[in-house]
Amino acid sequence: MGNSFSSIISIKDVSVTFQHKGKSIEAVKDVSFEIQKGEIFGIVGTSGAGKSTLLRTINLLQLPTQGKVFIHQNDITGFEGESLRKLRTNIGMIFQQFNLIHSKTVYGNVAFAMKAVGRSKDEIDKRVPEVLELVGLTHRTNSLPTKLSGGEKQRVGIARALANNPEILLCDEPTSALDLETTTSILELLKSINIKLGITTIIISHEMNVIKKICDRVAVMSNGFILELDDVFTVFSNPKHEFTQSLVRHTFDLALPERLLHREGYKTLKIIYSGEFAEESIIADTIEKYGVKINILHGKIEYITDRPYGILIIQLSGSDEKINEVEGYLKSKTLKIEEVIENV
Amino acid sequence: MYSMSWSELFARLNNAFFETLLMWVTASILSIIVGTLVGLIIFATRDGLFWKNKILYYSLSAFINTIRSVPFMILLIFILPFTKILIGTTIGPFAASVSISITAVAFFARLVEISLSDVDKGIIEASKALGASNFIIFKEVLFPEAIPSLIRGITVLSISVLGLTAMAGMFGGGGLGDLAIRYGYYRYEIKVMVATSVILILWVQLFQGFGDYLAKKSENK
């Protein structure tokens, strides 16, 4: 996380209501939070949760119906014309569908960002190769967007967004149109840019995996509300809201075949562990100490901001007494333990 | 029965061809310029993307619909007094170009509106997010992105204009259409009928081919 505590963006009681065919739809409902300078802040939620709408209030592509948005403690909500355009040059944005100008080359697309705000040709000629190098696209300088792969298109999008040296980068589902491998490389690029330039990055995604890979903090959004907001590790390891719990479960995807779930004489347990516990040999110790049989059926360890967080599904067999003892022991050694009765 | 000699036919065809060419070029250029402007205003005032203005949008749109719904023959006659004031005469290719242009402007304005509307809204949003002014967005994004579609529109427009010159020709404009009707139809001169038709068919074919080529080229540049 960014080392300072100064907030660069603060969103206060923001609501956005759309009028559609005489009905009003509340896309964002009374949302407030702050984003710290230099952090990567994630907003996660299903489609239609209002993430995109909320993100767009930061550069006023979407005007809040109620509430205010502050950048560096300045209320920007009323900005118009010249002041709005000036504000926007300080906020880069990238999109799910890249939104490149098809009739311009890679160079032309990046140059357009600078031309749009009245930079001179000399400045443009100096800056464009710099940003193209930053995103690793020097060899594509004169290509047209139609000749590029999805990952390359998003790199052009990033270069364009960075051309005017903004302090803030908004990312609207930046990897949702990309395959897994390209997603990873784009996320790594965003992370490295965040570290190199100290640019405050806000990224929205419907995938917890994306958030987990690069974000420092995350807000979980559903139906226009922010359900919880905390550092990513906390949200992952201790999701409070039911919706967040299911998002996290989907990320781990630990479903078992039915025949294993209902095996006679076995008790199925889900063990959740994190921090230093994850690095100890708890299972081996348990077997040695209690002489029970333990089958490991499923498991996964994730490293979220370098801290391990693991889930293990095991089956125990033995007398009820012994199983209770083992459960007690495991409980003392891990974060959470629960019996698995059905797949969720 | 009187039959036109070959030399007379060529002389008349030659004369008519240039009259048609004059009407065609004048009316096409005028309607491309004015139609682009009107189409742009309709597009820009339609919704919140640029300069939403319901009054301007609906009045321009209604005006265009009115012109487009009146049959061209009727419009021609309605417009004659206006042409007289504007050019001083209702005879000749230039005078005929006035009524052709008015109809063609209405037609082309719609084509421009469609072409501009087809440009991906995401690209416009991205440009706005960069802090680009509306003027720069039109100049650097909307028109360049719409070029292949605009070229197709211009091709369709020019061919419609050619059709209109035939009708306008009958009301004093002259040209191939006039020749075909006066000699070919009223006097049963098959030669005239065939010759004018062949010229017009070739004209359309060549121009359509040229337009397609340009549109394709602008797409893959």
How would you describe what is shown here?
- The complex is a heterodimer of chains A (344) and B (221).
- Chain A is α/β, with parallel strands linked by helices and 344 residues long.
- Chain A has two domains: 7-250, P-loop containing nucleotide triphosphate hydrolases (Rossmann fold, 3-Layer(aba) Sandwich); 258-339, Alpha-Beta Plaits (2-Layer Sandwich).
- In chain A, 35% of the residues lie in helices and 30% in strands.
- Chain A has twelve helices and 14 strands.
- Chain A has a six-stranded mixed β-sheet. In chain A, strands 2-1-4-5 form a four-stranded antiparallel β-sheet. A four-stranded antiparallel β-sheet of chain A has the order 12-13-11-14.
- In chain A, a hairpin with a 2-residue loop joins strand 9 (217-222) and strand 10.
- In chain A, helix 3 (106-115) packs across helix 4 (121-134).
- The longest helix of chain A has 18 residues, at 180-197.
- Chain A is elongated.
- Chain B is mainly alpha-helical.
- Chain B is built from eight helices and no strands.
- Chain B has helices at residues 6-46, 54-69, 72-87, 93-117, 121-129, 134-173, 176-185, 190-219.
- In chain B, helix 1 (6-46) packs across helix 7.
- The N and C termini of chain B lie far apart (58 Å).
- Chain A binds chain B through residues 59, 61, 84-89, 91-93, 95, 97, 99-104, 112-113, 115-117, 144, 157, 160-161, 164, 170, and chain B through 120, 122-123, 125-133, 136, 140-141, 144-145, 147, 221.
